[in-house]
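Q: Start with the shorter request: fold the first protein.
A: Done. Sequence, then structure:
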Amino acid sequence: MASLGAGVVVNGRDAAAVSEAEHRIADAVGFPGSPADPAVADALIDACVREFGRIDILVNCAGTAEPVGSSILNVTTEQFQN
């Protein structure tokens, strides 16, 4: 997506991996921290909007498998953190 002109923000719990991705992807912005932490998630969204003005596409690669059959749209913060 970055090669097509999209602004990219990379997030993850592993700061070293975030830094590596930030350096591998042209003009990417790294934001280390766990998206399961509501304060980190809020700060991440704020950083995206501050850097690019808005969010057009969101790719969520973080998730949970519990409870079985659940959706990321209705999982509680406590379930997501586990």
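Q: Next, the second protein, separately.
A: Sequence, then structure:
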Amino acid sequence: MSRKWRWVMGLIGLVLTIGCFYYWFHMSHPSVLPTDEQIIKEINDIYLEADAKEVQDRVAIDELHFVIPYISGRGDYSLSYWEWGLKDWSLTYIDTKGEPTLWHVDPAHPSTYHIVWNFDPRDQVDEISYYLLRDRGFYVSEGVENYQPHIQIKKKITLQNQTYGVMKLPEEFVEIMEGLNRVNGSHHPFLSVDEVLSMQQMYMGYFPMNKDGKRASIDYSVNGQGFSNGTQSFDFVMPVNERDLEVPK
């Protein structure tokens, strides 16, 4: 065998080895989620203040991302967020309360965003209205007058006697967010989608209601503590009041 042929065969072998390693490292299918006991231990080992006692459920975002709501020893209704890493499941975020949170599963694509919640039953939340909001405004930039129209889009969810839930961001929300990102991102190519939307003063809000259709108290579901390992992106969903919303006349 000539030296050139040996060199070619060696190069092919190297490419195949790298390809197999890449497939094993990045394309392997996720394993089964940990048991309830393992989940509770992992949460408490990473963040002692979580005081996890009871796993409520395992809710799939996709094959690589799960939400696991749990109840703490203090009786708080809490949330944990999990993602498949290179070889195992990792706990990416813990919230000791269940206040609605926006999970940017892939920050570059709003179509992957999900709202996650776990309301304490003592707050008696029966329905939630989620909003994509932007206040009306006027400003001058570089001598040019700009009018910023009001945006208010609503999606109502009924809890159906279940404290926790996951909602993929509605298509109408995604279309507006992606449209604004295309228009404004072209002028600011180095900003993320989240930064562009923040610059546009756009935010997510929620209005919790009890069975009588009145605004529910959420005292037991807010002001929690949390832990993040920094591998995933999350944002608060802001509670809103009647005065924050425009009602058609």
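Q: Describe the second briefly.
A: Residues 20-25 have pLDDT under 50 and may be disordered. The longest strand covers residues 65-72.
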